[in-house]
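Board notes (copied after class):
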Amino acid sequence: MNTKLIIVLLSFSLFGYSQKKENKKAFTLKPKTEFVAELLSKMTLDEKLGQLNLPTSGDITTGQANSSDVARKIEEGKVGGLFNIKSVQKIRDVQRIAVEKSRLKIPLIFGMDVIHGYETTFPIPLGLSCTWDMKLIERSAQIAAQEASADGINWTFSPMVDVSRDPRWGRISEGSGEDPFLGSLIAKAMVDGYQQHDLSKKNTILACVKHFALYGAPEGGRDYNTVDMSRIRMYNEYFPPYKAAIDAGVGSVMASFNEVEGIPATGNKWLMTDVLRKQWGFKGFVVTDFTGIPEMIDHGMGDLQTVSALSMNAGVEMDMVGEGFLTTLKKSLNEKKVTIEQINNAVTLILNAKYDLGLFEDPYKYCDEKRAKTEIFTSNSRDEARKTAAQSLVLLKNQNQLLPLKKSGTIALIGPLADAKNNMSGTWSVATNGEKCISLLAGIQEVAGKSTKVLYAKGSNLDYDETFETNATMFGKTLNRDKRSKEEMIAEALKVANQSDVIVAALGESAEMSGESSSRTNLEIPQSQKDLLNALLKTGKPVVLVLFDGRPLILNDEKATVPAILNVWFAGSEAGYAIADVLFGDVNPSGKLTTTFPRSVGQLPIYYAHKNTGRPLSNSEGKFEKFKSNYLDERNEPLFPFGFGLSYTNFEYSNLKISSDKMNFNGKVNVSVDLTNTGKFDGKEVVQLYIKDVVGSVTRPVRELKGFQKIALKKGEKQTVTFEINIEDLKFYNSDLQFVAEPGLFEVFVGGNSNADNKVSFNLVN
């Protein structure tokens, strides 16, 4: 008798399977509520607490699962799921322990940080957001789910939807930028991509929205740091993407590390129960972040037993790595610090998720070796990743139409990121095989063709400071530090540059200069690379800066001196091809910034949807005015605004119209604009609509994004683009936290970025 049949028969006797009449080989479970309730009634307290425990396994070596420490805990029913284990064989080995050796045979759930792709890696989320294309974003998550599920994974700790307006914070790379409207649409697209509205399918996985809440607004931009803001700001500016994920049916939520109103999120009942469940109706389970419960000890909330009870009472169901639930809740129950009803509810929610994933019906549902061999890192998925990556690149400058490059002559490719394939995937790419990624050098050589000569020199190290470079190239993403002197490296670069027709300088951040625990106070390109760039500019050759980064950088010098700047983020496993596609014009860049690029760190936090002061600056030239809200030593406006991005062609906006100058609460108005491609290339433009609520019961932002459309036009083509505005677009949370629209004047701006000056207006009337 084979193993699978044994498991089915055991499940039949323990869980009350009923046989289908039409197919004697198939079995169906009782309805979820009844099934889970019966299973819960069979569980001991220790087994219940085990379901709430999510340890990390380490990457167990195939064939050694039975001898690992985690195996003993699984046998004893003390583990509900595992993460950081990869491959069908390893996961099958561990799952077998759960469904053959534990008393109740409850399958495990297996999670992984599948953040922007699995082995086929898409651009980092910040780059992905710059596509402004919800279909592409959803598809990227769908492919990630396809690959992860084929390799045994059924739960991802994604999407991260934290709004962030401070690029000092390294994890800005992992989110979708500064805007709650755009962030909400992306949150929904990602959840839909992972879950596809049907977790019973083999190629979908459970999504986990994170980090709830406000994680993207730490003081000083320092990771894990204190967050403090008003509730009105939470609801209007930071909560919307989380709620959008809940509304999309996300199956799980991860608590954030930071405190909210003086209480760490992991133990914050107002967040986890009042907002998440009572106000938003969330039905899934909440998991802590890595050691989130014991970390509350350092926050000053008490010992492990105290903070574990605090977390349970707040409404958290699963403890990632901390094991506070496993080791202290029994004592807290005896001391009446938690209730059995709370524990039972937490276990029920986790078992519900396993039921929805089909794990009780087939614990090995995600352990199909045929899928693992045929559905991961396929040519089709890589092709989609390449096309998506090309859409994420943002052209920041293109003086005298230096780009696109010709596929002829000699190109000097210079810089520490030029031949760095293991950095192309960016941060949080744990399943990526860096050796299979496409470097910029390889991409240019392939796309440019045999008529183009490509010369290469590294030119500089990432940074003059070796310790800094070591810290910024962790997790196998070394740049192989060159031991030569600065002078020797630049001399080699200049020798190559002087033989070329054009210089492509591949500079910026390494993959791990952004991401978790990678906060920075200096947001400029490292000085070693700036020195290299200045030397290249002095040759008089045209220079294209291909800028790698995981956050907005300060580019005052580069904007002033470099003819062309293409911001490429970290574009994924196919990065080299995608960047080359854009450099040579096979793809016309259409990415638009989803974060504001500052002029200096002193401006931070900076974002387009700010509010006016009572003393706004009256001039548009950035001149200092005493007793106005400005700086002595810097302009107010950013270097590049939210929504900005150039194309190889030109787009002209004209004939902005509104269907009526009045709108009632049950009505709508239509706004239209003519968009014309007046340049020499076919291209795409993200047409953006912003609204300003001129007078409100509370102060309102100077403008807010409320609509956008990505329009493809052939050269010379013209199209009328129409937006509908209804009452939902005008609502906000007032001082009583009521979601309302108020009568009055509204101004509407349409254009290619947040500085759009084409304006119409209307009045909202009762």
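Comment from the instructor: The longest strand covers residues 683-693. Residues 682 and 714 are 4 Å apart (CA to CA).
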